Each structure stands twice: as structure tokens, then as C-alpha cells.
User: Fold this.
Amino acid sequence: MFNIINATGGYGKTTIIHDISLQVNKGETVALLGRNGVGKSTLMRFATGLIPAMSGHVEIEKCVLPVTPAKRAKMGLAYVPQGRFVFPRMTVNENIAVAAAANGFNAKQAIEEAMQDFPLLVQKAGDLAGGLSGGQQQILALARALATQPKILLLDEPTEGVQPSIIDEMAGILKRINQERGIAILVAEQDLDFCLSIAKRAYVMEKGRVRLETDRESLRADKTLQQELLGV
Assistant:
């Protein structure tokens, strides 16, 4: 359903990712694993159109996505970047409403659905996003992405700086949304336990390339691989 094909890209003249191909099937959750600096975030930015492609392309349902991030969003790609990047001077409700409206969806309905999906945000609905804790901002960023009604959700290091209780809540939310709405998820992470709790399959990156594709059970059982490629 979602394909990255022969992705090569980077910043300026520096190539970070090299000829990467991966696939996420409809309704599937897949982990993108690897140590810091292997190119996970660069691959995510390639997929969303935030960096130019040196070669390769991205597809949703066999349609090649346009160049700009805004047009990719309208075709069903949602992205929660590392660091969250909520609009700090807008309220929680306004953050969700803007995301929905920008993609042609009903803002009021999007807010109502977000409050049902994320009870943690209910009491914060009128608060400025900049005043939320890191974990609350991460939940808001996720709610905002879902307000665009995506086919594929890309998450870049969603557990970074988030307290364990909210990480557990986030995992539960992602599993439920994946099951109930059939939204495919690609999550780039270093937190192996989090990934194994939501994904059945993983790609492991090393030095800007995909070193291997594996399933959850094999990865969980292979402690040598965990230490070599993930440092856990």
C-alpha cells in the first residue's frame, strides 16, 4: 500500500540514505529501527517530501506521490516529526482544527474525534500547546496528524522525551487506531520494547541502508542482533 522505492537523498551534496526500498501493507504497523545517526529521520523526511530526492520515489496505493509535502498530505500521508513541532501559540483545539481544515475536513468533527481518541487532551482543549508537557505535546501531534484522515502515518521517534506512562498510553492508542481504522503506521524508533509492542515486522537500518528486514519474534529472540545493530 505504501512504498518507498530506491530512496537516495540527503542534505546538500551529502548523501545520507542509499537506495532504500521498503513496504508497509494496508493496515500494517512496521518499525524502522537503528542506532542514532543511521538515517531514519532522513528517510522519513524523504518520504514526506521535506528533502529533495536524489533518486527514488514514494507511492501510496501504486500512485507516485507529488513532490510537495502539502500535496502528499492530501493524498493520505501524515507525519509526526521528531520534536513534535506543535503550534505553540495556538490552543490544543486550534492545532487540531487547522490540520483538519487544511486537508479539507470538518474541523469541529476532527476535534470531537480527537477528544474521544485522546481523553488526556480533554482538560487541555483550551490551553496553548506551548504550555503542555512533552508527552502531552506528543499526544497532540498525533491527534493533529490523525485529523488529516491519513492512509499512512509516519512517526519519527515518538517516545523521545516522553514519560513511561504516556509511552504506554501512546502504544495502546496506536494499536487501537490501527485496528479500528485500518491506518497503516511506519514508526522510526530506538525504543525496541515500544516497537515490539505495536509492530509485527521491522526494517533495521545501518549506515544509511536497510541492513535487514525481520519479524517481531525473530528480532525479540536475537539478542546478538539487538546488541550489534541497536545497542540494547
Remarks:
- Residues 164-181 form the longest helix (18 residues).
- Residues 2-83+134-230 form a domain with the Rossmann fold fold (CATH 3.40.50.300).
- The chain has one domain: 2-83+134-230.
- The beta strands are 2-11, 14-24, 29-33, 53-60, 63-64, 77-80, 152-156, 184-189, 201-206, 209-215.
